[in-house]
Amino acid sequence: MNTIMQIENLKKNYGSVQAVDGLSFSIEEGICFGLLGPNGAGKTTTIEMMEGILAPSEGQVSFRGKKIDNHFKKKVGIQFQNTALPEFITVKETLELFRSLYPDPRSLDEVIEICSLSDIIDRDNRKLSGGQRQRMLLGLAIIPHPEIIFLDEPTTGLDPQARRNFWELIKRIKAEKTTVLLTTHYMEEAEILCDQIAIMDHGKLLEIDTPETLLENHFDGALVKIPHGGRTDLKLDGGVLSGDFLEITTNNLDRTMRDLLSSQLNLEGLSIKKPNMEDLFLKLTGSSLRS
User: Fold this and answer.
1) What is the β-pairing status of strands 204-209 and 239-242?
2) Which residue pairs from 252-256 have beta carbons closer than 8 angstroms and sit at least 24 positions apart in sequence?
3) Would you say the C-alpha torsion 210, 169, 184, 174 has a positive or negative sign?
4) What is the Cα–Cα distance from 21 to 13, expressed in whole angstroms?
5) Do 193 and 167 form a contact (C-beta atoms < 8 A)?
6) DSSP state of 125
7) pLDDT in tens, 129-174
8) How many domains does the chain have?
9) What is the pLDDT of residues 37-66, one digit of tens each?
């Protein structure tokens, strides 16, 4: 795959505060790239420099091997965390207004179809639900046929159904070979949508790789947890007693289950948990994604 964006030694200072401190990474064309970090990690500042909204204190942002300029702005779509919409006009009128700003906009029908807007196309902007508003904002972002689209926490505040519906829209856009850069407060969302994830904190890059590789590099096996029913004599590899439970960390789940059956322990209440991105995030940053 070709590299579509690259940042090199990117820094941003606000007086004595170093919001971004020497970030370097690249994004391959056609993937969904997740940029994650706790609140205050420097994600939004980083994205705004990548979008060309903020000027770096040091370092460089490149698009297809060239420093970003006004030409780059014609190739990018942006869905901000907060966007003020024109009032007293409909979704259709808003889309037409934004289409008039571009020399070669995507057709209205195509935007409506991709973002599933037909049911709200004649609705006043003031009467949109959270999920409907996000669908329309995504429609605005794809109007200029962007080669890369920035989605800054696009599903924050949405109910679970609206969030999952939005995931399907992101998958459709990615299927067009459009590169997606996503920030999110939901680790499940990142794990499902992202081909590559970068985790940052205090302005620095902590880790970058595929979700699968990140988990493999930091965790081994699975955690099996089962009520011990007072059986404090149990001797299983990797097993420790914790309150009312026997907890077993294992790299061989099949063997562990056979050992449990052989011990004649009642398997009711058994749970098996494999480490996920939430566990990794806590391990790397020492805090939850929303902290």
Assistant:
1) unpaired
2) 252/221, 253/221, 253/222, 253/224, 256/224
3) positive
4) 8
5) yes
6) G
7) 999 999 999 999 999 999 999 999 999 889 999 999 999 999 999 9
8) 1
9) 998 899 999 999 999 999 999 999 999 999
pLDDT at 122 over 80: yes
Q: Which residues contact 267 (CB under 8 A, 6 or more apart)?
A: 226, 260, 261
Q: Please check whether residue 160 lies inside any domain of the structure.
A: no
DSSP state of 127: G
Q: How far apart are CA 268 and CA 270, in angstroms?
A: 6
Model confidence over 271-286: pLDDT tens digits? Answer: 998 888 888 888 888 7
Contact 238, 259 (CB under 8 A): no
Whether 139 and 95 have beta carbons less than 8 Å apart is answered as: yes
The answer to whether position 242 is within a domain reads yes
Q: Which domain holds residue 229?
A: 220-274
- The whole-angstrom distance between residue 108's C-alpha and the CA centroid of its chain comes to 28
52 contacts 214 by C-beta, under 8 angstroms: no
Residue 74 lies in a domain: no
Which of left, alpha, beta for 253 (phi over 0: left; psi -120 to 50: alpha)?
A: alpha
N residues, the chain? 291
199 beta partners: 36, 207
Is position 240 within any domain?
yes
Token pair 């009642």: residue: 266
Cβ proximity of 265 and 226 under 8 Å: yes
